[in-house]
Amino acid sequence: MLQPKSTCPIARRVTSLSTDSIKLIGSVCNRFPNLLALRVQLHGSVEAYHVFLSILRNAPSLEHLDVHILCHDFSEGKRANTLLPSLQSIRLTLASFDNLNVLKNLRAPAIKSLFLSAPTDPLASAFWDAAFKFIQASPQLVKLEMYDVFFLDDTLTKKGGMSEDRSSAFRDFLSALSNVRILKLGHFDITIILQSISAAAEWRIFPSLTHLESDRLRQ
Predict the structure, then answer these.
(1) Mean of pLDDT over the chain
(2) How confident is the model at residue 203 (pLDDT cuts 50, 70, 90)?
(3) Any residues with CB less than 8 A from the CB of 207 and at least 6 apart, and which?
(4) Which residues are bridge partners to 89 per DSSP?
(5) Residues 32 and 58 sit within 8 Å (Cβ to Cβ)
(6) What does the DSSP assignment read for 133-181?
(7) Is 80 exceeded by the pLDDT of residue 11?
């Protein structure tokens, strides 16, 4: 018979938790005051995702978070925002647009470093809007890494219809990076950013940037 939920004696730094272990820990513990770093891989279980958010809400000292999410069918608006007041860095690897809610559910005002690996699908305006709002609520962010970000060529610079919506959301995303000093892009065509900077006569992009790194430039 399980004891009442209590403080969890797991290590201060957990290198990896699977979907099943997340469910197990969540069933017996509800406080994680000493947890500093956590790496989680969630596969196909919305229930595990909700338990994962519960663990985060009860880990006030958490500083580093690495999340690989492969769940599906997240319900919009059913979960309150999860505040992570001590979080310094987060790595998010998202499998599809269904996983965008993790950006909407987390609030990390003290975060300094964000790694974001996006879906392989061509990115819609919803992605850039979610990323914009997350970064806008994180004024101390100084390092951003983005990998495997894919979009249809020129859809971020064309006007009209959905392309215009996507272009507007992308510009909003760039405008939120005013405090970013280090920007690293992997498998991300930097041409799109350069075109946006060139076209941005009325607003400044990256006023604090000191380091830009990219492995791709469209010829």
Answers:
(1) 76
(2) low
(3) 178
(4) 64, 113
(5) yes
(6) HHHHT-TT--EEEEES----TTTTT--SHHHHHHHHHHHHHHHTTTT--
(7) no
The Cα 21–Cα 70 span in angstroms is: 16
Average pLDDT over residues 135-140: 93
182 neighbors 153 (Cβ within 8 angstroms): no
- 6-214: which CATH topology? 3.80.10
pLDDT at 78: 53
Give the chain's largest Cα–Cα span: 66
What residue ranges do the domains of the chain occupy? Answer: 6-214
Average pLDDT rounded to a whole number, residues 145-156? 64
What's this model's pTM, rounded to 2 decimal places? 0.82
What is the residue-wise DSSP string for the chain? Answer: -PPPPEE----SEEEEE-HHHHHHHHHHEEE-TT--EEEEEEES-HHHHHHHHHHHHT-TT--EEEEEEE---PPTT-S--EE-TT--EEEEEE-SGGGTHHHHHEE-TT--EEEEE--SSPPPHHHHHHHHHHHHT-TT--EEEEES----TTTTT--SHHHHHHHHHHHHHHHTTTT--EEEEES--THHHHHHHHH-SSS-S-TT--EEEES----
